[in-house]
Amino acid sequence: MVTATQDIILEEIHVEGYERVVKCSDPKTGMKAIIAIHDSRLGPALGGTRIYPYEKFDDALFDVLRLSKGMTYKSALTESGLGGGKSVILLDSVKGKTPEMLRSFGRAVEALEGKYICAEDVGCSTEDVKIIREETVNVVGLAHKNSSGNPAPFTAWGVFRGIQATALALFGTESLQGKKVAVQGLGSVGMILTDLLFWHGAKVIATDLDENRCLHAKQKYGIEIVKPDEILFVECDILAPCALGGIINKGSIPKLKCKAVAGATNNQFLDEKTDSKKLAERGILYAPDFVINAGGLINVEFELCKEGYNPIVARNKVDKIFDTLTSIYSIAKQNRITTLQAAISLAEHRLEYGIGKRVENLCFHH
Ligand code: NAI
To answer: What whole-number distance in Å separates Cα of residue 133 and Cα of residue 115?
Structure first.
């Protein structure tokens, strides 16, 4: 079905297992986007807007589908009363990003009548979200007094607690004293994670494509720096990917020398089904990405509550990533399934029985 509203053309794409996938375009501004609502049984679908120069439409579709599904599981496991969604804007590398294009994307979001809420993501800054906001209220992450602010410290704290849960599963103690952790990527999340690991006595080995970040971390924390192409294969207790996805694949799995993979990166497997099994067959424990990196989503959830944002409440809930991951490790062990299968089953169970379903309306404070 194709509908048009205020120059925006909305074209429904049928995708099995997805509630709604909409191709959005505006010939006047050149805006081309896809909004995917994977599942909204527990609440309105929330997920960032990725702005990227995709080579083909199918690449953008693939990205938005897998990312929105991940958001459904992430939201279900955190009982945030939100559903899973995501959007991608297909950037024309010649024309680039324009305010007009962002505004017409905002009108497309508005046309979905609150079923999808967007936020910043790769290629989409807070400034861009501010422009999108001119056309729709359905955005989060803007700078205002009730805003949840930068999600990275909350994500990093969740990853850190997840690493402690992983240490507990591996060694019978959550202490990281003397444990070797390899951090791939010293960006917003990876740098804060390195700080937390440092103060808890871990031995950190890290890398980044940006040499200045490596130098800074080496100077501040005395950590060992290796080349970007070496980090995945260093001998360590826990590998913490905090850069880009697809790094756990058939090429890298046989060469990994870690006991567990537990990091912030979204979509760590290149081929989720096969690679998660291969990793488990090698006896390497895996912290499902949508479980361990949920701190940012948990933080934003509190921006939408009636009382307004409270960082203490957000931090305390992020802390629970430790318990969620510990349960997932235990379910996987008892049932002889992969940790990814255990996490998905737990999320599917909550979706089926409406556990954590939103009872209060969302409250936008901007
Ligand atoms: P960022 O963009 O601030 O940092 C990523 C860092 O990785 C950059 O410093 C970059 O130079 C480095 N990098 C990229 N490719 C690399 C490679 N091959 N080897 C070594 N370093 C490399 O991103 P951020 O916010 O720290 O996020 C990291 C990951 O965590 C991303 O996959 C993101 O999707 C995921 N994530 C982030 C959240 C957040 O709150 N920022 C929330 C949930 C997931």
So the answer is: 15
Q: pLDDT digits over 99-119, tens only?
A: 999 999 999 999 999 999 999
Residue among 265, 277, 34 nearest 162 (CA): 265
Is pTM, for the whole model, over 0.85? yes
Between the CA of 243 and the centroid of ligand 1 the distance, in Å, is 3
Closest CA to 362 of 164, 124, 68, 115: 115
The b-or-e profile of 246-266 (16+ CB within 10 A means b, else e) is: ebbeeebbeebebbbbbbbbb
Active-site pick, 23, 86, 180, 259: 86
Residue nearest to atom 8 of ligand 1 (CA): 187
DSSP at 233: G
How far apart CA 37 and CA 114 sit, in angstroms, is 11
Regarding the beta carbon of 184 and ligand 1, being less than 6 Å apart is answered yes
Smallest Cα–Cα separation from 209: which of 235, 179, 187?
187
Does the active-site annotation cover 220?
no
The pLDDT score that the predictor gives to residue 319 is 98
pLDDT digits (tens, 9 = 90+) for 132-162: 999 999 999 888 888 888 899 999 999 999 9
Alpha helices (H) along the chain: 57-78, 99-111, 126-133, 152-171, 188-199, 211-221, 272-281, 289-292, 295-301, 311-318, 321-335, 339-353
For ligand 1, atom 33, which residue shows the shortest CA distance?
A: 265
CA angle 204, 206, 207 (to 5 degrees): 175
Is the four-CA dihedral 199, 202, 208, 213 of positive or negative sign? positive
- Of 136, 140, 144, 155, whose CA–CA distance to 48 is shortest? 140
- Type of residue found at 88: V
